[in-house]
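Morning, I've got a small favour to ask if you have a moment. I owe you a coffee for this, so here goes:

…
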Amino acid sequence: MVARRVRRARVRGCDDRRVPPAPLFSFEHVSVAAPQGWRLHDACGQIGEGATAIVGPSGSGKSTVLRLCNRLVVPTAGVVRFRGDDVAALDPLRLRRRVGMVFQRPTPFAGTCADNLRVARPGLDDRTAVALLERVRLDASFLGRDAQSLSGGEAQRLCLARTLAAGPEVLLMDEVTSSLDGDARDALEELAAGCVAEGVPVLWVTHDVAQARRVGDTVVVVLDGRIADEGEARAYLEEREDAE
């Protein structure tokens, strides 16, 4: 089991003369307005490589942080960077192939499982399609199965395979096990760990502190529309662990 830690997210000052590698994602005074108020307000922080769990109470802004990473949400103010590049300057479709996302509710498209995979990679041959299915623990018999007849856990694994078919550099996972049973949850967590081991960083949003500890090498806490500092993060995690 990898070590778990809570890291204070910081933005490197412009007077630092060192030239370290750019973080996976950085948030520079990012705000996102909504009709009911701020979803994020002046959020600053960094997310590195490996497995990062993003945790916080409902409505805190954690899913907004995730969606900023591939421009499903656009900041009202501030800058989001992906490996040093301002995401606002990147082509959205290309960015979303590089930064793939699996959503809370599985959304298989009409057709077979193979058809679903070919949405992400047109011209995909059966051999490669089977390899993708096996990567998410679905065997070759699923290739011709009706995608919309799958169970919840099977459908979520198909959606993960469909995202992987595009060859993403990063995986965003937004409450992907919230409607699944324990076995299906465990399978998704193990598959995410496998992706990290293969060199694909994972950002996993959850409201479950125990899950955040399991899936994250680093745990980032989002509170009231901002990325919490180390002290706030530790206090939140300890309070939630005591409550559970």
Q: What stands out?
A: DSSP finds eight helices and eleven strands in the chain. Residues 182-197 form the longest helix (16 residues).
